[in-house]
Hints:
This protein has 8 helices and 9 strands. By secondary structure, it is of the alpha+beta class. It has a domain at 2-30 and 232-335. The relative contact order is 0.12.
Amino acid sequence: MDQDFASRLARADALKQAVLTARQKCREARKLVNRARDGQKVALIRLQQAMERLSELQSGRGEKLVSVGPATVFEFWIDVPGYSGPVRGTKSRVTQYGDFEYISNTKGTSKGGLGGALVGGALLGPTGAVVGALASRRTTVETDVEEVDNRQFELEVTGPGFAWSTVQNPDTESTLKKFRDVTNARGSNNDDVRTLASAQSSLVESLRESSSRAAAACESAAAILNERTDAYIQAWDVYTSARLPLLEDLRARWANIGIAARVGFVVCGPVVLASLIVLVTVTLARNNNADISLIVWTTALYMLALSVTFVVYLYRVRLVDSMKWRLKMRQQAYKQ
Length: 336
């Protein structure tokens, strides 16, 4: 028995190393797949952006830059009422008409002297009443200054064979000035849209090849992950089906489950059992027969559930799987 146990333990150590190696290879392959997928996403985004840029250049217009009413300026094109064509040679200016005005509104209020007239009349008669009324009268003057914006802005756009203008309110001042600056900048620019489109086309082809390589790398990484996953499953099957020592088998299965399953086993096992023990102890101290009976039955059912689970484990894993493994080994030996 001691030699059999020692041989099984040595076999467990050897198989465990194979499982750990296979698991590590799976983790490395999974990281490789994640990196390949991230690279493929980046390549697709860059390709999409480059294709959109190529579409803008091939249209001859380029990127849309600014609009004012019916007028729109692109990198290489301008649309205004009566003209739609290249923006080169176009000039623009903004002229201000009017200015701010300040209007003063004066309001005066007078407070009557009835109280002073009564007092003066009582003391000095009619003459005192008049003097008292004049002395107690108060006049208040308030002046409000209102700012009125009377400005108007005219945008004038001129180019080879066309001219267009529009007058806008002050709230569009910043947009008009931006339109002017952009128009003047693009109108004096000498870039050739066809040359840029040709260069962008070459860039799109290069990015398309990069995207294809990224997709191939992603598929290759996924294939490697599948291969290593199968190898890990096979190594794990060999490890758990070799009828290892009970403690070693439990340790191996505990190491193979996820964190959520570990937490569930801990909560449903030691935590619940400890809680029941504390509850039984407190109830016995209180000497409440009804509570004691209920808690004892609950504890008994819980222990029965744990026992049944352990028996199922022994039967399903330790007996059935072991028999299947031995039968499989005999079949392989017979084929050889």
